[in-house]
Structures are given as C-alpha cells and as structure tokens.
Amino acid sequence: MELTTNKEPLIDWNPLIKHAKQAYKNAYAPYSNFHVGAAALDADGNIFSGCNVENASYGLTVCAERNCLSFAVNQQSAKINALLVYTEQEKLTPPCGACRQVIAEFLDQGAHVASANHLNNLQVWTVKQLLPDAFTPKLLP
Fold this sequence. Notes:
The protein is of the alpha+beta class and 141 residues long. Helices cover 26% and strands 24% of the residues. The strands form two sheets. The protein has a five-stranded mixed beta sheet with strand order 4-3-5-6-7. Strands 1-2 form a two-stranded antiparallel ribbon. The active site is at 65 (proton donor).
C-alpha cells in the first residue's frame, strides 16, 4: 500500500503496518479488549512502534499512538514523517482527540497519518485534516 502526493515523497506503508501489527499483539487491553498498535517513521527511516496500555483507572490508559511517539522521543528521533494506526476492527480506526493533539506536536501539519486493519484497508489523512487549527508549539510566545 503506497501513497504518492506532489509534496511528499513516496510512503511505503507496508513496513509501518508490519511493525504496528506486531505492537498490536503486545497491547494490554483486558478491559475493553480493543487492541491497537501504532508505528511511526522518522526522517532517517527508523520505525518506532507502540501499543495501547489500559489501566483499571480508565483515565490512565495510554493509547498506542502516544506510546509510539513517546518511544520515538526516548530514542532521540529528530522528526517523525508518518504514523500508522493498526487495529483488527472492520471499520478503520482514526486517532482519538488526545492522540491527534500529541501527533500535532511531533508531525508537521502536512505529514501523513494512516489507519490500517486486518482486511488490508488503508485510509490516509494529513495531520491538518485530523486536527485543523491545532494548538502547536508555534503558537507559544
């Protein structure tokens, strides 16, 4: 599954799907049974993955996308170019609102975010499409 645009280089989503699918298998979701994996691609071609980790105190649950981006930051990744979310739901699962805000912190507004599932469906958005007029560090004094 590939995407080509006029402004962005060719994105091969297959390696991200592979990593996100593996992370999906590691998800800790005993309460919702809603497993999610995510993978991010940085400017150097490195791929970072993460899964959702639930908590009995539901508000402390951390989504796969945020875990993935936290891992990338921990590994001193300079710039994330693309992010993919993987589930085994029939309907594709876009990032939640909290994740959209965190994505806007680490990806440019024109960067691509995709959702994939076990049925080989893929949907792609830009960060700006997911969170128009995002509050980003550029707005800080």
